[in-house]
Design a protein that fits this description.
alpha/beta, four-stranded parallel sheet, four-stranded antiparallel sheet, about 45% helix, binds adenosine monophosphate, binds zinc ion
Amino acid sequence: MTTIKLHNTKTRKREDFTPIDDKNVRMYVCGPTVYDRAHLGNARPVIVFDVLNRLLRHVYGDAHVTYVRNFTDVDDKINARAAESGRSIGEITAETTQWFLDDMAEVGALEPDHMPRATAYIPQMVAMIEDLIAKGHAYAAEGHVLFSVESYKAYGALSGRSIDDMIAGARVEVAPYKRNPMDFVLWKPSDDATPGWDSPWGRGRPGWHIECSAMADELLWKEPLRQDRLSDKAKSAPHVFDIHGGGLDLQFPHHEDEIAQSCCANGTDEMARYWLHNEMLQVEGKKMSKSLGNFFTVRDLLDQGVPGEVIRFVMLSTHYRKPMDWTEKKREEAEKTLRKWRELSEHVQPSKPSKKLIEMLANDLNTAGAISQLHEMASVLLAAFGGADLPDEIDVGGIESEFLASAQFLGLITDELSGWNWKAENEKDNLIGWAEVLSEVRLQALAKKDFSELDRIKLQLVEAGLEVRFKKDGVEIVDDIGIDQSKIGEIFYPWANNK
Ligand code: AMP
Ligand code: ZN
């Protein structure tokens, strides 16, 4: 079995990944707050953890992985959006949730097994908060419930900060009802105009962090136990799950707070075994922000005609722990590469992804390495189809099938993402390329006064449905009636071979 290595933020080391129960590998990733279109940065964790999800399923089996990614549908940003637009909260969250799903499908992300909405788990959150109060880790004050950071010694361990550092470094909200300025909100009161649920502390709504602790516990611990999907080994193991992921901006305070809540409620010293954080996305070397005018959504790019597959390719070209720079140049190059790759694998049946590609990914998700692996395979195929003399032991058909399976493993060149117009541009390029070759053949024919080769090629092009126009300064090939690709393949190869 492939050993997956992952860089664990918690230990700051690359570790061998050993699941608690290899029959039920469990991963939780923090999802979006649904009040607006996903910006390009939001797509990064989705794509990164989509690759990890695919890899885990490859190694442990599709039926043995549970991947949960939540929707935060209760949040003050959503309330503000409702107030300013005059629309209902439910309408806004339903609409943006669907936008998110549509946009992420366009960048080739598979849907997680569970996509819980926070508002569907309020009773679980209330129960967890009551438990934290009972255990002395939280206190109610003025309609709020706060987590007491001093009650949890390991607070700050994930990001390596002490409570004093945090107070000095962070812009903490000092409120009269807080015992310590770092204490964070588990529950807060709602006025009549704000969404609220009845609770032992009055009508109110949850703070941000508690939803992930409650939903991870419900879907990655209680639910598999109810379904009896955990092995005896896992049942007797501590109350934790395997992998927790999200963007680096969530490490503090969100993930510290999730850990504090879960560990104190469940009486464990960890919430998840492995913590993974993707670095942030920038645009042309600058932080993406509305004030810099370089802020755009995934949908903006799709609407401008940038294929989702191209977005995915560019994202995967940078390792997830490095800052990633979205540039126009990368976009153009990715598009060219994908055009070529789609053409190379057009009538190919996929076999299995290459071992080397899986090894790359198993090495802390080296997606950039996996892409160079694909480039290597593609260059062998290009050489073979260009008529190069390759050693006999190279099995071109085998490489073709492995190439396609490998690309598809990364979520590229899939049928689902085939909706963009890669062929038209390719054909335009091809017509230009063939015309250049034909011009050269014509010059040689004129010099030798032998037009047989030129006539042969011209006839074949015409038979393939193309029109050939000889002009003073060159040759033009036009496709008016629709090209028959099956007749094109052979035309130029003999010539390319003899060159
Ligand atoms: P939010 O809706 O802001 O809570 O973010 C949803 C997810 O997107 C979280 O995992 C964030 O860490 C991630 N994220 C937000 N901005 C960026 C960015 N510029 N680059 C990479 N990830 C981001
Ligand atoms: Zn979270």
